[in-house]
Structures are given as structure tokens and as C-alpha cells.
Amino acid sequence: MDWQTPEDTVPSAFITDANVRSLLGKPSATGAWREGDPVGQRLFTTITNLSLEFGGKLASARIAYETHGTLNDDASNAILVAHALTGDSHIAGTPGDGHSTAGWWNDLVGPGKAIDTDRWFVVSPNILGGCQGSTGPASHAPDGAEFGSRFPFITIRDQVAAQAALSDVLGIDRWAAVIGGSMGGMHALEWAVGLPNASLRSPFLPRLLCRRQTKLGTTRCRWSRSAQILLLPMAPTTMLLTAMGLTGGSHWLDALRY
Predict the structure, then answer these.
(1) Where does residue 42 rank: exposed (0-12), middle (13-18), buried (19+ CB within 10 A)?
(2) Coil, helix or strand for 251?
(3) Taking the CB of the first residue and of the last residue of the chain, which one, N or C, has fewer CB atoms within 10 A?
(4) Beta strands at 78-82 and 115-116: parallel, antiparallel or unpaired
């Protein structure tokens, strides 16, 4: 892994029993959007009875989304933009209450830009499970406690099904385009394969890995297609499921709050 620095190859510190005990009784810390937090530019809708690819259903789920531009009379100018793994619905705009950072595609989405909101109606939903307004592990389950590791296992196909349900709520039968980069590209591909009649175009942006050529001062990029790249997110996931004191990933349990 030639992009790593030496500091990345060793743990900064080991978690001891004393570290775990010192956190007992402290309030939970999370980057998730929670009820009562500033809404910002988020809009919300609720979808129901969502069947999941690996079995079971979500009886009810909230989807947070952001819109820019105006939907025309026949709903033919709508573009769906799917965010990357660590993204959210805040595709364009300034930081402020409810949004700690500026929109992640400010350079591309807006009046007169590549995705011109004077022409197109742009919808950017937070993915199902994304926890930035959409239902996910940080949300409260019917028993009043956070889902945590009890949240159902969901797939790209499930997330696209939730986006399709949002389309129905908005009255959009067919998207002019479905666009996404990185994980959002997986959503765009699933729209093209699983719901081909629901979008006219599904461009996607594969992730690039770049290696800087220090002598020439240029950068050479190659497509990242390796299984290693796909498996990298499994390392932190496995850590959370097995780390001492995290009780199988249910780190919102009253017995041990972070």
C-alpha cells in the first residue's frame, strides 16, 4: 500500500481495560444527525414497507434529501445525484447550522455550472443507513433505543430501492440522469441495471488512485479495480464489531456509553 505513510502502519495507541472503564457513564459521541439538531437545507420524507435484499423489511424509514432548482410541469428535468460513502445530502451550499462543511459538489452544482440548476431540478438524498438525516444505526428503533448493530444489513440495491421510493414521493417517474461518484457510482449502475426504465442516463465516476511523479511534478492516475480497495472498509467495520468494550458494535448500550 504505497500511499501509506509510516505513521499509518502502526496503531497510535492500544485500548486498555482502564481506557474502557474511564468512558463508562459518559454521553454518546457521534457524527450522526440526531433529532433536535439544526435541519439546515435538509428536507425529509418517510418511506414504508421497504423489502430488503437479504430478507426482512423496514416498516418505516426516514429519508433526508436536498433539492436545488425547480421541477418543471412534466417532471422531465430531474437529476438524481448519489453521494459517496462518507457524503450526505448537502450537495451545494454554504456551511452553517446543520452543515459543518460546504456542499461537496459546489463546483459542479448551481446556476450556470455543469449541473445547471437554472435548467435542472437536482435531488441529492442521504443514503438509507447514512445517519445524516436518513434512518440508520444511529436512529431510534421502535423500542426507543438506538438501532446500533441491530440495524438491518443493507445493500446498494436496498439503498437504490429507497431512492426509488423517494422518486415516487416527489412525483418523478423518470430521471433525466442519475449521477454518482465512488459509492454513488454504484448507485448509478444499479439504477441502470435494476431500474433501466426509470432513468434516461446513468453516468458514474469510478474512483481514481493517483501516484505523484516527484521529479516531473506531474500526477499519473490509474483505475482502482483491485479487491483490496473494495475490502478496505472491512477493516474499520471488523474493528468496531470486535473491539474491547464495544459489545459487538452496540456501543450505544446503557451499560457502556461513548
Answers:
(1) buried
(2) coil
(3) N
(4) unpaired
Q: Given the C-alpha cell 453516468, which residue does it identify?
A: 203
Compute the distance between CA of residue 145 and CA of residue 130 in angstroms, rounded to an integer: 18
> CB count, 10 Å around CB of 137?
21
Q: In angstroms, rounded to a whole number, what is the distance separating the alpha carbons of residues 240 and 248?
A: 7
User: Nearest to residue 71, comparing CAs of 121, 123, 122?
Assistant: 121
pLDDT in tens, 105-119: 999 999 999 999 999
Domains with residue ranges and CATH for the chain: 33-207 (3.40.50.1820)
71 in Cβ contact with 84 (< 8 Å): no
Question: What pLDDT does residue 221 have?
Answer: 46
